[in-house]
Amino acid sequence: MNEKVIPYSPKNGKIGCMVGKEIKVTHSVLLKALQFYITDYGLPQSNYSYGILQFSEKNSLFTLLEESYTEAKEINGEMWVKNELHKPLLLQPGRYLMFMKWNTPPGDRGTSAQTIGFIESDNCPDISWMNWSGSNNDWHKDTGPYKGNFMIEPIYIEIVE
Question: Rounded to whole angstroms, how far apart are CA atoms 33 and 87?
Fold first, then answer.
């Protein structure tokens, strides 16, 4: 089931709310872009930031590898939106977190910003994260009352070794 995720919480409905999806890289790849499924709820044309964080093997902190900003003027909603990185990013084997950050306050019920798609499923890995503060190290495995994952996907250039 494809559900809409509203970037709103009683905890924080401000600029900087983020959603993320964990990926595990098993061999070296070049990350070319991230794509997000933007729904038609709210304002699909709202600007947002996106990027990738690396999980630390030693502690619970993340390392920011890339963050970019987009002007989403041509997004009508109910579509996958491809977001190119400034340049392809070499990812070594490890765990990473792809994220989207709202740059527009979402409003009381999320209607003042875009929403990202969510696939509800009881049989999926627990790889979606939320961050209500905007700090790169304030992530929690949390999808509210739903079980499933955000519609965020990487676009790779495979490296042949």
Answer: 9
Instruction: Identify the domain containing residue 92 by its residue range.
Output: 2-158
Burial of 17 (0-12, 13-18, 19+ CB in 10 A): buried
The model's pTM is 0.84
Please write the tens of the pLDDT for every residue from 102-157: 887 666 666 777 778 888 888 878 788 877 777 766 787 777 667 888 888 999 88
Nearest 5°: the CA angle 41, 42, 47 is 115
CATH code for position 37: 2.60.120
Question: Which residue type occupies 36?
Answer: F
Domain count, the chain: 1
